[in-house]
Structures are given as structure tokens and as C-alpha cells.
Amino acid sequence: MQQVRLMSTTALLTVFVWISADQLVTKTADIGVNIVVRAEANSDLVVGATVGTPTRFTVTLSGRQADVAALRDTGVAMVELTLRDAAVRDRDLGELSLSLRDELRNSASAFVGFAIESVDPPTMLVMLDRRIQVDMPVQVRSSSLVYAVDPSVEPELVKVSILQTVYEAIAPAGPRIVLDAETYLSSQPAGEAINLDVPLQPTLQTDQATYEAIGVAPDTVKLRATLRLRLSQGTIQAVPVKLLVSPHIQQEYDIEFRAENPDMTLTIDVVGPPEDIERLINGDRRVFAVINPGSPGAGGAYQFFKPQFDLPTGVRLADEQTIPEFEIRLVRRVQPASAEDAGG
């Protein structure tokens, strides 16, 4: 029995020694790693790998044999490095070479418990930039529409978030946000005040090129305009001239024109919406000219009267100066003597 206990104790000590030895053995291995560099949260710092820079690296590290084996079993590792604002605040913007061995050693979350021996390639090129906000004008573009009130926007200046290096490069070219007003106004009714909320895209334009910004605030503006009514001009032939005289005047007065045999039809030029002008020219809508002599003038003198036209709403005479005036007077009609007057 004592021999059995002795053998059990020996076995346990052997296992303990083996486990302890395994924990103390240091193993070196090459691990494939994908590395992504990020800026720290709540920072205006912007960082990313330059075009063509590899993101897959071979990291040579050492650690406990069991840990190295476990790490190998996971396959390619993914590491996200956080570039702190304070560490690069004094650096110039643009390309920056990072020593990956130092960055991985300083990273609290990358390969904890391992010693970083080397990295291949040893460096990673990143672009360092910052987000800034600048005031940017909004320019309204419109070419084919005709306006009674030209389009405008409110506000005329917006805040644009943009990379500092991009803005410094394009600032001399006068960047602006261009709003294509016709996209929103072409379907609006003419002759009415238009007041629309329209979206803004963070796309900046210069005379040479366009550039994408990060964002714009506010992202909508108020677009105001009034489209001019589309007008056509046409000629209406043989418009009849009518006299508007009350029954009392007709019974007691004769209407005399200074001109002999005046032409009581007129040819007029009118301007208005195309569909109304077409109906007038085709005779689908009749037009009359009206003269109202009113009451007799003093001493029966001739007076000038200009005809008035019953044109549809929105249609007007092209030139009122071409409309002739008529000289008219009212002359009291001689009443025939009654039989009683003749006998007296």
C-alpha cells in the first residue's frame, strides 16, 4: 500500500514538473497579421493607409509555448492600432511612416503576454489629416428657365466639414456648393411664388474640378423663385367694335362719329399664355371691343373714346398705342311735335 502511494506521488510530481516546464518554455513563431490603423474616438484626426501600402504583415513574436500554439491555431490575426491625437499633434499633415514594432509593443490590446521580436515589412505608410469646418457659399445655377423673381437660397453660407489638406489645396480656386435650381423648379407653376426645402450634397465645385467633402450643415436650404409665365404673341383679325349705350340714351340721343363711315372692326395684337392665344386666333374664343360713350358731353362736343377689350385673364394687348381712338358725340334727337302743340 505504501508502495502504491509512493508511485502516485511520483506520478503527480512528474506531471507537475512537466506542466511547470511547459509554462517556462519560450517559443518563437511567425504569425500572419492584418493591421488597420484608426484615429482615436472623438478626435478630428483622420488616418488611413496610403494607396499601395500592404496591410498584411508577418510578426515574429515569442511567448509561452502553449500560448504560441494557441495563437497559431487562430490563423491570420487582425490587429487594430489606435493612433492617438497627442502623439501626432506636432507632426505635419500628409504621409507618415509608422514603426510597427513600436506601435504593436505600445498597444495595450495587441498580443498581450507576447514579446514582439520583429515585423516584416517593418513600417506602414499612413496618411495623416484633420477634419475642419469652413464657411462655404451656395451658388444657384439656372440657365434655361425664365424668372419673374430670380432664384435665391437661404442661408447663402453653410458649414462644410472637409479634410484640411484638401481645403488648403482648393481654397485659392474659390470652392462653392452649386445648387441646380432647375431640378426643383422646372415642374413648378409659373407666375406663383415658389418656396421649397431642397437638400444639399457635400460636393464642392471650382472652375476646374469637383471635390467631395465630409458633410454639410445644414443639409437643406430654402429655395425661392418665381417663374415667368410663358407668353406667346398673336394677331386677331376683325374684332367687332360695339357701342354700350343705355336705353335712355338710345331713346333721346343720336350717336355721331366725326369720321365718316368709321371701320367698326379692328385688328389687334395680343400677348398671353400660348394656349389662350391659340384659342383666340382660331376663333374658339371670341373677342369684342366695347365703347361706352357714357352721358352727353357739354354742349354736344366730340370726345375721344378708346375701345376696351374683353380679353381672357392673363392676355393683354401687345401695344395699346396701336389701338385707334374714336371721336364720338351724343346729339339730342329732335322730338316730333305733338298734335296738341301743332294746334296751339
Structure overview:
It is rod-shaped and about 150 Å long. The protein contains 9 helices and 23 strands. It has helices at residues 2-24, 65-73, 85-88, 100-106, 164-170, 182-185, 247-252, 274-282, 339-343, and strands at 26-39, 45-49, 56-64, 77-83, 94-99, 115-120, 123-141, 147-154, 157-163, 177-180, 193-199, 203-205, 210-212, 215-217, 220-227, 232-243, 253-257, 265-272, 289-291, 303-305, 308-309, 316-317, 326-332. A hairpin with a 4-residue loop joins strand 12 (203-205) and strand 13. Helix content is 22%, strand content 44%. The chain has 3 domains: 20-121, no CATH class; 132-227, RNA Polymerase Alpha Subunit, Chain A, domain 2; 232-332, RNA Polymerase Alpha Subunit, Chain A, domain 2 (Beta Complex), CATH 2.170.120.
Topology:
Layout: H1 2-24, E1 26-39, E2 45-49, E3 56-64, H2 65-73, E4 77-83, H3 85-88, E5 94-99, H4 100-106, E6 115-120, E7 123-141, E8 147-154, E9 157-163, H5 164-170, E10 177-180, H6 182-185, E11 193-199, E12 203-205, E13 210-212, E14 215-217, E15 220-227, E16 232-243, H7 247-252, E17 253-257, E18 265-272, H8 274-282, E19 289-291, E20 303-305, E21 308-309, E22 316-317, E23 326-332, H9 339-343
Parallel strand pairs: 1-4, 7-10, 16-19
Antiparallel strand pairs: 1-3, 2-7, 3-6, 5-7, 7-9, 8-15, 9-14, 11-15, 12-13, 16-18, 17-23, 18-22, 19-21, 20-23
